[in-house]
Amino acid sequence: MAVTRALRGRLVFYSSIYLVWILLIFYATGGAHGQFSSWLAGWRQWDARWYEQIWREGYPRADPRTLVFPPGYPFVVGSLSKLFSASFLATAVVLNLAAFFMSAVLIAEWLARKLGASAALIFVFVLSTPAAYFAFSAYSDVLFMLLLWVLLWLALAAPKPRGLRVRVAKCLLFLVLPWIRLTGYALASWIFARRIVALAVLGSLALWLGFNRTVAGSAFYFLRAQELFGMPRGNFFQGFADSFFHLASDRSHPMSWLEFGFLPLFYLGALIAAGAWLGKKREGLLALTIFSILLLSYNQGFWRSVVRYDLPLTPVLCLPLLVNAASRAPIVATLCRAAFYALIVAQFLLQIYFARAFHAGAWAF
Questions:
Q1: Residue 68, CA distances (Å) to 38, 201, 220, 226, 241 in order
Q2: Torsion angle defined by CA atoms of residues 196, 222, 51 and 310, in that order, rounded to the nearest 10 degrees
Q3: Cβ(89)–Cβ(44) below 8 Å
Q4: What is the model's pLDDT at position 3?
Q5: Taking all residues of the chain, what is their mean pLDDT, rounded to a whole number?
Q6: Rounded to whole angstroms, what are the CA distances from 89 to 7, 74, 111, 276?
Q7: Other CB atoms closer than 10 Å to residue 339's CB: what's the count?
Q8: Alpha-carbon distance 267 to 312, whole Å?
């Protein structure tokens, strides 16, 4: 009973902080200065339009380039919008905000118990992620984040004994995740961790290739279609070099310097360091997941959006800092606490900056 009461107390805290965060983004993006409908419409930018088009028109044979977006997310949002007689955008925002809240609570509660860190601080850190404002738009990243962390929880922390239902749930998640975001195919790496259920990802891939062939006449059309969205061909090293080019040449354009140069490199380095730290802590599956998603996301065709693609992974960045903040060495503890709070402040400032830009129609991840 005491545990239940404590959890209820934390849920009240989480809900209160989450409401404050929603109001922060609402006011920061001009929600208090006009009609709510106009403010909401401002979140229908960039990929959000493509997801709605997929729901309304499918994948037209005359223009199948929308195959860069798998149909899972528009199908879920569109079905719910039809069920509740609501607009596609409004349904997406409600779904994403609910999914982001559940993700933050799951991550905070699980990782706090797992590593002995503060659940409240982890929760706030998740909210501070620079790309978290995509929860207010019709983008698939937040739903993918929730399903990914549910899968990780099932694989590593589900109550024992783990019966048939848990295995079926994991198998379904492996099948579904790549149809929400193509990043889900990175989870095939779990096979190397002897997670045989990850073979379901290969079944999902076979279905996806067949779907592409049916719609566009080529099983790998979704790769070629990326070029139609301005994503150049390349590899990790070309993308790495391109970000250094932006780092050196875009200093007179702060927004471009941040999203194309500094931030991709910073989060790549920070996530690699966090993954290595988790590996040292014998959290091999978490580390493998981080490295495999990074490997898929960080190539030249994706670097302009990798800060958004990092959204599901970013919560792990706070773990080394929070755990080492309890170090017996005073200098180490002080430095880790200072770095943690500085990172939270910097991330919130970046989040507000890019949320305002996105809402105004600018490209922001």
A1: 29, 18, 10, 6, 25
A2: 60
A3: yes
A4: 55
A5: 92
A6: 33, 10, 32, 39
A7: 15
A8: 12
- What are 66's two structure tokens? 């929308």
The CA radius of gyration of the chain, in Å to the nearest whole number, is 20
Distance, CA of 135 to CA of 92 (rounded, Å): 8
Residue 209 has which token pair?
């290739």
DSSP assignments along 275-332, one per residue: HHHHHHTT-HHHHHHHHHHHHHH-STTTGGGHHHHTTTTGGGGHHHHHHHTT-SSHHH
Q: Which amino acid is at 261?
A: G
**Vertex 359, ends 356 and 364: CA angle to 5°?**
75
186 token code pair: 């990175």
> Can you list the alpha helix ranges (DSSP code H) found in the chain?
2-28, 36-41, 47-57, 72-83, 88-115, 119-128, 141-156, 164-180, 200-216, 221-225, 236-249, 254-256, 263-280, 284-297, 306-309, 318-324, 330-359
Residues 221-260: tens digit of each pLDDT = 988 887 777 676 677 888 888 888 888 887 788 888 998 8
Could you give phi then psi for residue 158, rounded to 5 degrees?
-60, 140
- Residue 93, classified by CB atoms within 10 Å of its CB into exposed (0-12), middle (13-18) or buried (19+), is buried
Q: How do residues 323-362 score in pLDDT, each as one tens digit?
A: 998 877 889 999 999 999 999 999 999 999 999 999 999 9
Pairwise CA distance, residues 238 & 255, whole Å: 21
Per the CB < 8 A criterion, the answer to whether 174 and 154 are in contact is: no
Neighbours of 237 (CB within 10 A): 10
Burial-class residue 279 by CB neighbours within 10 Å (0-12, 13-18, 19+). middle
By the 10 Å C-beta count (0-12 exposed, 13-18 middle, 19+ buried), 39 is classed as middle
pLDDT above 70 covers a percentage of the chain that reads 96
The span from the CA of 294 to the CA of 274, in Å, is: 12
Q: What is the pLDDT of residues 271-312, one digit of tens each?
A: 999 999 999 999 999 999 999 999 988 876 667 789 999 999
